[in-house]
Amino acid sequence: MRDNHPGAVPNSPAPDDPGYPAATASDAGTVTELDAVLVGCRACPRLVAWREQVATVKRSAFREWDYWAKPVPGFGPVDATLAIVGLAPAAHGGNRTGRIFTGDPSGDVLYAALHAVGLASQPTATHRGDGLALRGVRITVPVHCAPPDNRPTTIERDTCRPWLARELALLRPTLRVVVVLGGFGWQAALPVLAAGGWSLPRPRPAFGHGVHVRVTDPRTGRDLHLLGCYHPSRRNISTRTLTIPMLHDVLRRAAHLARQ
After folding, report:
1. Rg from Cα positions in the chain
2. Of 146, 145, 198, which is closest to residue 168 (Cα–Cα)?
3. Is residue 39 a part of any domain in this protein?
4. Which of 53, 146, 175, 179 could form a disulfide with 95 if both were Cys (CB 3.0 to 4.6 A apart)?
5. How many CB atoms lie within 10 A of CB 191?
6. Does residue 140 fall inside a structural domain?
7. Which domain holds residue 152?
8. Residue 118, SS3?
9. How far is CA 30 from the centre of its chain?
10. Each residue of 26-37: b (16+ CB within 10 Å) or e?
11. Does 27 map to a domain?
């Protein structure tokens, strides 16, 4: 039976159909419309089961929370000049709060850094409606549901890809810079950019912290700056694979390039 959720597109596949993202994302004319249909997606059975299981079992610290337990859309202005691409929502972070990188250790680091370089209105992100606003930045992910062990499968990544592709296409008129957090996001973003018509260098550049690649939009001749950054995960921070100054440096470079 078709799920008549808010934002559903008439005659589109049902939300639990693997073809739902591909068929539905392309029909969204705005980022707001895209977010509305995205949150109804149930195309990946393993991810749906996990996100809903976590919301039922909960973590003791969040026992009183009514978990979001749906796909988590991107966050930030729809005319952003800078996009940040992460991995996926955290089980007790975005999957709980309904906003990406909100309520988990990675988000604590990221939003504090964004505030420190002038890209966020406050250094903390605790829940939707907490007053946080991003300045010229939109944060999104290649997989919109929390995965077990923070590890989506390649099939789940590819099923979810149309959401990222459409979001970047809708941001294209204003987008100048993309910061990718981690190797998984890098591997997801490059095919999306290539399929979207951006000209990538050959061979395709490998991920690395601080990597800076210019990709050209043949339609306008304008460059899109692609920056690599280690993911601000608890492990990367604790092992000092990524330090706060390293993160600040990438975000400052991104903000500078976005203003040019």
Report:
1. 17
2. 198
3. no
4. 146
5. 17
6. yes
7. 70-259
8. coil
9. 17
10. eebeebebbbbb
11. no
- Alpha helical stretches, state H, 5-98: 20-25, 31-38, 45-57, 94-97
Q: CB-based contacts of 131: which residues, under 8 Å, 6+ apart?
A: 121, 122
**Nearest in space to 89 (alpha carbons), one of 147, 138, 132:** 147
16 occurs within a structural domain: no
Q: HSE of 3 in the Cβ direction (CA atoms, 13 Å)?
A: 15
Distance between CA 20 and CA 42 in Å, rounded? 8
Per-residue pLDDT tens for 3-46?
A: 444 445 456 799 999 999 999 999 999 999 999 999 999 999 99
Strands lying side by side in the sheet with 137-140: 137-140, 82-85, 177-181, 222-229, 212-217
Give residue 220's pLDDT. 84
Count how many domains the chain has. Answer: 1
Q: How far apart are CA 255 and CA 158, in angstroms?
A: 29
pLDDT of residue 1: 32
* Domain of residue 204, CATH code: 3.40.470.10
89 pLDDT more than 80: yes
Spatial distance between the Cα atoms of 155 and 112, rounded to a whole number of angstroms: 33
Q: What is the C-alpha to C-alpha distance for residues 243 and 237, in angstroms, rounded to an integer?
A: 6
- Residue type at 147? P
